Amino acid sequence: MARGQRVEIDGSESVPSFYGKELRFQRERAGLTLEQLVEGSFYGATYLSEIERGQRSIPADLARHVDRALKTDGYFERCCEDVRRARRNGHAEYFERILEAEKCALTIEEWCPTVFPGLLQTEAYAYAVAAAIRPLEPMAETEVKVTARLARARIFEEDHAKPCYWVVLPEGLVLQSLLQPQQMAEQLDRITALVKRRRIIVQVLPWNVGAHPFMIGSAKILTFADAPPLVYTESLHSGHTIDDPALVAGYQKSYDLLRAAALAPQASLALIESAAEDYRNGKQPNRLEQRHLAEQ
């Protein structure tokens, strides 16, 4: 797309798009550029443009600023909660900030030692995880959550350059038969397909690697072109977003050390493909043997 080419917004696509289209209409009616409208706020023109295109929700402080500048009598501030609810439909409130951040990130680095990360899950795997966590939940509620989780993976179908997603998977997770063998093969096939399309980088941490920096906890580390990095950690029924620079730097260093302890990407891909083939043939994949490690 040529630089400066106007993109028409489909306000029926989503609640954020609806309000984003209205924001552009009000701004242009007032004869203001993006730069002029954000002047005096803590936000940039690019940030405002992404709000207008429905790619970001509008923060409350920016909504108040916009209402003052456009004389819209608090309209956009009142819309904030509608947009936030629409954004997190099917997701926990504590995940809201990361849900939006994933779409804007330059890089996402993830370590999730107990289940495949949500961005990589197939429908069958997502249902199995949801049912295990909340076995008495009505199916309709589970379906909403699974649909929302699968929708997050659309970032791999969009701009090839963003985000760069790098994940380290424990070997035990690849070999743990959480689903029926054919479904497990399909889950691993999804991961290998994304690797071969050059949408993600995967490394496998061998089960016998010994002590490593992330023996405790999970982490999702996100970096951005126009904002400081974030770290998201999650436990069973809660999540926490970290933006303290010193803590973020500590997580980044630990992740680098974890990555160094894992198998190289090509060896990791071969292991995942082999496990998928075993599942397809009705076999339980074997653990990586020590002699294979010595060959790396």
From TrEMBL:
InterPro entries: Cro/C1-type_HTH, DUF5753, Lambda_DNA-bd_dom_sf. It holds the Pfam family DUF5753. Residues 23-76 form the HTH cro/C1-type domain. One of its GO terms (molecular function) is DNA binding. This is Transcriptional regulator.
